[in-house]
Q: What sequence folds into this?
């Protein structure tokens, strides 16, 4: 299986398959509308807020720069909140993020576990800086 680092991804109509929270690191398995399997690796995580984020359709993704070294990475639901605003389903404040495409396929499996357990724990992808 070839792993390819990405700079962007199509968030619309995709869904989060799983969230793995570790010490200072969060890994999110994501499947795009066209069945591409992605892994997001967030390093030096300060805050994570999740509300019904797994398997619901995603309508968008935004990165907001903060006043300090952290950025806020936000996944939005296709549904609106009670005020008619975009509904945040996953928000992560972290120092940096990397996106990797790890395959394709429509089966319901977490991309994190499809590529092996080397993604779990303290090990890092060799080309991730």
A:
């Amino acid at each position: 299986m070839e792993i390819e680092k990405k700079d962007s991804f199509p968030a619309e109509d995709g869904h989060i398959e799983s969230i793995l929270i570790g010490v200072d690191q969060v890994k999110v398995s994501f499947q795009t509308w066209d069945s591409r399997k992605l892994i997001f690796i967030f390093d030096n995580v300060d805050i994570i807020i999740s509300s019904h984020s797994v398997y619901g359709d995603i309508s968008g993704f935004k990165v907001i720069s903060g006043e300090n070294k952290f950025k806020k990475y936000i996944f939005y639901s296709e549904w609106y909140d009670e005020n008619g605003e975009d509904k945040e389903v996953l928000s992560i404040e972290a120092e940096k993020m990397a996106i990797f495409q790890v395959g394709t396929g429509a089966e319901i499996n977490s991309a994190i576990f499809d590529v092996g357990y080397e993604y779990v724990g303290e090990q890092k992808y060799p080309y991730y800086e």
User: Anything to note?
Assistant: DSSP finds one helix and seven strands in the chain. Residues 111-114 form the longest helix (4 residues). The longest strand covers residues 86-104.
